[in-house]
UniProtKB/TrEMBL annotation:
Protein's name according to its UniProt entry: Outer membrane beta-barrel protein
Length: 315
């Protein structure tokens, strides 16, 4: 974990004032949305007069019993991506293309379409203390094209200037439909805080399925605009669940790590399953991506909130 945190800071420069302002506004909006929703949920819980004798969803003291149950949840929130270096390499090109941008101050625009969202399906086992589930996270990682950064290496055999705007080298450079992660998680409930408040932790790993959008500024190569498998991803999470009779409201912090080697297929894609099938066919045919790869690491803090439906609640 220390290595991941170090990675997030290494080589980073202080973001410009506009970026800091955007991050502050995004986090403030997330806090306000969460606070309003939390207030409504707590008020509903306060006036809720569930029968104390209910054995399918509650205890005699009015608390909600923990046990085996299936959870289906949706959430949204505000991520922050650490700056990182990104490398574009195409070993198959006739003229050498192998250059690095350092740093790229990835931004997220979580409330601009396509918005940040996530979905979860989880199963809590007998006793309700341990569980497992799958998260799909749709975030974004967008390079600020008008920002200057450091360049090294060559493009089409020509050395790049040591410093330039990203737009001068690439007219499109983002994972914005999005920076997608599909993760299998192990979950553990911590001791409850009161009759309805249940904190939990989790850790998981899985795959990156981004929508890669990239094109060189000189248009010397076709645009890549498709979903693909791009490498492994992982997360650690800490959350608090407020349990009602059949629903739960939750607030969660996530630390996510994504290790990219995104293929530049130079193809206009369509739908995630079809794009992945096309990528697998290229693998079996031994066809390297014609545009090479983008290699980078996206490390993020994410604060989310959401609603969950609990099926077959514990008895």
């Amino acid at each position: 974990m220390a290595e991941l945190l170090t990675l997030g800071w290494t080589g980073a420069v202080r973001p410009p004032s506009r970026r800091r302002r955007d991050v502050a506004v995004t986090l403030a909006a997330a806090v306000l949305v969460t606070a309003q929703a939390l207030g409504g949920i707590l008020e509903q819980a306060r006036v809720d007069n569930e029968p104390a004798q209910s054995t399918s969803s509650g205890n005699r003291d009015g608390s909600i019993a923990l046990g085996r149950e299936t959870v289906i949840a949706a959430f949204s929130g505000a991520p922050y991506n650490y700056p990182s270096a990104a490398r574009v390499v195409n070993p198959g090109a006739q003229a050498a293309t192998d250059f690095t941008l350092d740093p790229v101050n990835w931004y997220t625009d979580p409330f601009k379409s396509p918005i940040y969202y996530g979905a979860r399906v989880a199963q809590w086992f007998a006793g309700g203390k341990t569980g497992a589930g799958v998260d799909f996270i749709h975030s974004k990682a967008i390079a600020p094209l008008d920002a200057e950064t450091n360049f090294s290496g060559t493009l089409d055999g020509q050395p790049l200037p040591p410093r330039a705007r990203i737009r001068d080298i690439a007219s499109k450079f983002e994972f914005s439909h999005g920076h997608n992660m599909l993760l299998l998680n192990g979950l553990l409930r911590l001791p409850s805080i009161g009759p309805r408040v249940s904190p939990y932790v989790g850790v998981g790993g899985g795959v990156l399925l981004p929508h890669t959008e990239f094109q060189l500024a000189n248009n010397s190569r076709p645009r890549t605009y498709e979903y693909n498998y791009a490498g492994p991803a992982g997360q650690a999470l800490l959350g608090v669940e407020i349990r009602l009779a059949k629903l739960s409201f939750f607030v969660e912090y996530k630390f996510t790590y994504a290790d990219y080697e995104a293929p530049l297929s130079e193809v206009e894609g369509s739908w995630l399953p079809l794009d992945i099938i096309r990528q697998v066919k290229r693998w079996f045919a031994g066809e390297p991506p014609p545009g090479g790869h983008i290699e980078t690491k996206v490390v993020s803090h994410q604060v989310v909130s959401g609603l969950a439906v609990r099926l077959a609640p514990g008895r």
